[in-house]
Amino acid sequence: MRLLTATTCLTLLAVAAYADPLPSWNDTEAKSAIIEFVETVTDPASEDFVPQADRIATFDNDGCLWAEQPVYFQLLYAIDVLKEKAGSDPSILTSDALKAGAEGDLEGILAGGMEGLLEVINVSHSGVTVEDFQSSAGAWLESAVHPSTEMPFGEMIYQPMLELLAYLRDEGFATYIVSGGGIDFIRAFAEDTYGIPPWQVVGTEGDTTYAADGDAPTLIKNGGITFLDDKEGKPVGIVRHIGQRPIFAAGNSDGDFQMLEYTTAGDGARFGMLVHHTDADREFAYDRDSHVGQLARGLDEGEDRGWLIVDMAQDWSKVWPGK
Amino acid sequence: MRLLTATTCLTLLAVAAYADPLPSWNDTEAKSAIIEFVETVTDPASEDFVPQADRIATFDNDGCLWAEQPVYFQLLYAIDVLKEKAGSDPSILTSDALKAGAEGDLEGILAGGMEGLLEVINVSHSGVTVEDFQSSAGAWLESAVHPSTEMPFGEMIYQPMLELLAYLRDEGFATYIVSGGGIDFIRAFAEDTYGIPPWQVVGTEGDTTYAADGDAPTLIKNGGITFLDDKEGKPVGIVRHIGQRPIFAAGNSDGDFQMLEYTTAGDGARFGMLVHHTDADREFAYDRDSHVGQLARGLDEGEDRGWLIVDMAQDWSKVWPGK
To answer: I need a surface site. Which of A30, A211, A277, A309 has the fewest CB within 10 A?
Structure first.
């Protein structure tokens, strides 16, 4: 083992300290605000210092860590599964939304509102073990391709957010996903994609039962939502799974409003941020009038509440990894 | 900084390796079986080696980590709260079980079966924030005293199980509680008592809603069970919270049967254990006919399933810490 002199060590430490933890973020106020918060809460000399066990950060998934246009990717997966199921048993198409789903008619599904969307997801996600469901979803994310970007869905993740997750973990944070998407669906890729293990994923939960027939006890998805992890549900999901108020929360839509509200209402230094989709060239531009990821109240009240509104076009030098 | 010679280091390592990780366990087959399992799954040269991220161990709480006689301590807490609530508003006592509860009449509550018990818990645990509930429960556990041992309830934990938790964590396991008891109640003491943080507690969940009136958004307990983490519910609770099948599960009653079944049905080395309450002198002796912690199917089938049945009287040299 080679010995390093004290001077060499100090030089290496200095280089490490000055390396940019967020290279895909432009040098704007957004980046400074994030770094200033992290440096404050991790500085033992600061009055806002937060012990490592309390450094909990929560992230929405759709539209925050990966894309969500033209519609939530989980719905596109559900449509593909529904088509296959309906091919062998058309009698499962018992409603207009399901019929639209089996034809890949997005507008037809969304005409049924959230109910139509949930119906397509419930029927496609039922009668399968959790393990088989996750294998199927994982394979789909690698092979199915996005209609406009032509990228595999599983690669439509935001490089700046990957850097933010890694930066927070390097600084002793536990990084959780708290998503309106299905918990089993997100767990199919969260560990490989974001470095977030299954037990740090909070999401919408479907009715699941234990089946011990025969030699292989397992968990079966029955369809039907038992817990909706969206809006007022997000703080509930946090208290059920994490049991502690986060100090950092990131989202992008009004579905994240209550998560940010709950997080930033705690004592001491807190950080709330909303990713604003302003970049039609590199990604998509949408907010108040979008049928997915609608952001209106967050834009109206966020700044007054001290939340950071990230302007994707201005604050990110890069959107996708490797591009 | 003093430098250690290589020989000193090796000696220290050897001492550490030979130190008994389970000093309150007698040198019986139970202790050997546990240690052999842990040494096997942590040995990179073993074909049953398990990577650290997959070393998940789940523990029941009542009757496994702490005592549960004459009845679950959470019910005794609920009775004390109910008495207080009924003192200022007797109109809340709308059933025989609740009336019995307010009089501290255990048999009267249990005459109503599980329903009566849940009613007392629901009424006493509602209309309070999660944070206030946990402060109240935590204070009660330190001050209220067990009727027969005269120990504070919060101290009626099993020293051999504390050692087992610490041993597993030292060997890279994540240790979870998976209990039929209330998740908020257990979190009131699990970190201080067992070293288990809130996000590693899985339990029965009550209806909880987010309230953002005024300046202090918080979570309110409404009473009413939304998820029962017992029997078939335990594997469901595991898949919801942990998202991965454990390799080690410990319980003491038939309420833990499915957790052990699910755990030990996985591939590779697995460990299931049941604490059998055989020690009327130092703790309590009960199994098939007990109204709490009934253990019958586990005794009938456990051995054939390869589960370890721990004989508390024979296998433990000590029951309580400090005694």
So the answer is: A211
Q: Are residues A178 and A245 in the same domain?
A: yes
Of B198, B219, B262, which is closest to A235 when you measure between CB atoms?
Answer: B219
Domain shared by A59 and A93, yes or no: no
Residues B60 and B95 occupy one common structural domain = no
pLDDT reading at A15 higher than 80: no
Closest CA to A163 of A1, A4, A323, A320: A320
Chain B residues with CB under 8 Å of A197 CB are: 53, 243
Share of chain B above pLDDT 70, in %: 94
Gap between the Cα atoms of B91 and B60, Å rounded? 36
Beta bridge partner(s), residue A285: A278
**Confidence band of A201 (pLDDT split at 50, 70, 90):** very high
B92 and B177 share one domain: no
- Which residues from chain B sit within 8 angstroms of residue A205, using beta carbons? 240
B96 shares its domain with B212 = no
CATH, residue B35 = 3.40.50.1000
What the block records as the tokens of A126 is 């039922």
ipTM: 0.92
A261/B217 CB distance under 8 A: yes
Q: Give the count of domains, chain B.
A: 2
Q: What is the mean pLDDT of residues B255-274?
A: 97
Instruction: Indicate if A193 and A285 belong to the same structural domain.
Output: yes
- Per CB-CB distance under 8 Å, the chain A contacts of B208 are 236, 239-240
* Listed residue (B174, B165, B170, B196) closest to B39, CA to CA: B170
Give the DSSP per-residue string, A123-155. HHT-SEEHHHHHHHHHHHHHH-B-TTT-SBGGG
Tell me, yes or no, whether B204 lies in a domain.
yes
Do A164 and A58 belong together in one domain? yes
- Contact between A243 and B53 using a beta-carbon 8 Å cutoff: no
State which of A94, A112, A143 marks the end of a domain: A143
From CA B176, how far away is CA B168, in angstroms rounded?
Answer: 11
**Domain presence at residue B138:** no
Instruction: Assess contact for B274 and B256: CB atoms under 8 A.
Output: yes
Residues in chain B within 8 Å Cβ distance of A174: 199
What is the distance, to the nearest Å, from the Cα of residue B44 to the centroid of all Cα atoms in its chain? 30
| Least Cα separation, residue A270 to chain B (angstroms) | 14
Asked if B261 and A212 come within 8 Å (Cβ–Cβ), the reply is yes
CB contact under 8 A, B242 and A199: yes
Domain that holds residue B215: 24-69+148-315
Retrieve residue A287's tokens: 């907010």
Q: Binning pLDDT at 50, 70 and 90, where does residue B310 land? A: very high
Task: Convert the pLDDT of each residue in B96-144 to its tens digit.
Answer: 999 999 999 999 998 888 888 889 999 999 999 999 999 999 999 999 9
CB contact under 8 A, B265 and A216: yes
Look at B262 and A183 and tell me if their CB atoms are within 8 Å: no
Among B201, B209, B258, beta carbon nearest to A232: B209
Whether B223 and B268 map to the same domain: the answer is yes
Hey, what are A132's tokens? 């088989």
Task: Kindly state whether residue A111 falls inside one of the protein's structural domains.
Answer: yes
Q: How many CB atoms are located within 10 Å of the residue A166 CB?
A: 15
For tokens 């809340």, what's the residue? Answer: B92
- Residues of chain A whose beta carbon is less than 8 angstroms from a beta carbon of chain B are 53, 130, 174, 183, 187, 197-199, 201, 205, 208-210, 212, 215-217, 219, 226-227, 232-233, 235-236, 239-244, 258, 261-262, 265
Residue B196 lies in a domain: yes
Single residue among A143, A173, A192 that ends a domain in this structure: A143
- Work out the minimum CA distance from A272 to partner chain B, whole angstroms: 15
